[in-house]
Amino acid sequence: MNGFRFRNRADAGHRLAILLGAHARRRGTLVLALPRGGVPVANEVATQLSLPLDVFVVRKLGLPKHHELAMGAIAADGRVILDESLIAAAHISQPQIAAVIARETLEVQRRIRLYRDGRAERSLKGQVVILVDDGLATGSTMSVAIHAVRAHEPSSVIVAVPVGSREACDDVESLADILVCLLQPEPFEAVGAYYQDFSQTTDDEVRGFLAEAAMTEPAGRLAV
């Protein structure tokens, strides 16, 4: 698949769903998307497999002057993973790190309120959780998500992504029970390089996917 690019996130999700077909309609299985870009991918996975869809809010911690470069990530429960080697190389001070964490904590809280829209948080205890994002660059965001999900005592954690760097996939695979990754190109470019359409997913689109999923979910599937 050298030079291959997904048409868009929905196409990537459709292709992932094929590899995850053994989980179709399986009770006790939940698809959790990392917003925002992971939501269209996860929505397609959940739709194709007839599984419940929800979000798990995690935020990248970008370097102060290079926001796209992740020095770590933070989850809704306050768990933080930091890339100490990158922080040292970039000469980032502890007050700078604290400021980024404070800002992203507020954004995590805002997104939870906005996306959940009054719906109760699901219980993950005993569930098979399929964590989905649109790609893995450094893997830090997915890594903190896995740690945070594990605290809720799921039966297993499956990570499913369309594309990832070899290093990030190795790191994530060591934390998850199963990793499903369609592409691991070398050398690895930015995640968006492997999509024809990588336009930004909006908050309204995320809310729309979640509202539709809640309306179409079969009675009795909710675990709250």
In brief:
By secondary structure, the chain is of the alpha/beta class. It contains 7 helices and 8 strands. It has helices spanning 9-19, 38-49, 84-89, 94-116, 140-150, 166-175, 203-216; strands spanning 29-33, 53-55, 58-63, 66-75, 80-82, 128-132, 156-163, 178-183.
Shape: globular
Structural class: alpha/beta
N-to-C CA distance: 41 Å
Low-confidence segments: 219-224
Q: Biggest β-sheet, characterized?
A: 5 strands, parallel
What is the CATH C level class of one domain, in words? Alpha Beta
CATH architecture verdict of one domain = 3-Layer(aba) Sandwich
Helix content: 25-40%
Specify Rg, calculated over alpha carbons: 17 Å
- Average per-residue pLDDT, rounded, comes to 91
- The CATH topology assignment of one domain is Rossmann fold
Number of helices: 7
Q: Approximately how much beta-strand content do the residues carry? A: 15-25%
- Report the strand count: 8
How are the strands of the largest sheet arranged? 2-1-6-7-8
Order of helices and strands: HEHEEEEHHEHEHEH
Describe the structure.
The protein has helices at residues 9-19, 38-49, 84-89, 94-116, 140-150, 166-175, 203-216, and strands at 29-33, 53-55, 58-63, 66-75, 80-82, 128-132, 156-163, 178-183. By secondary structure, the chain is of the alpha/beta class. It has a domain at 9-57 and 118-216: 3-Layer(aba) Sandwich (Rossmann fold), CATH 3.40.50. Strands 2-1-6-7-8 form a five-stranded parallel β-sheet, sandwiched between helices. Strands 3-4-5 form a three-stranded antiparallel β-sheet. A hairpin with a 4-residue loop joins strand 4 (66-75) and strand 5 (80-82). The longest helix is centred in the middle third of the chain and has 23 residues, at 94-116.
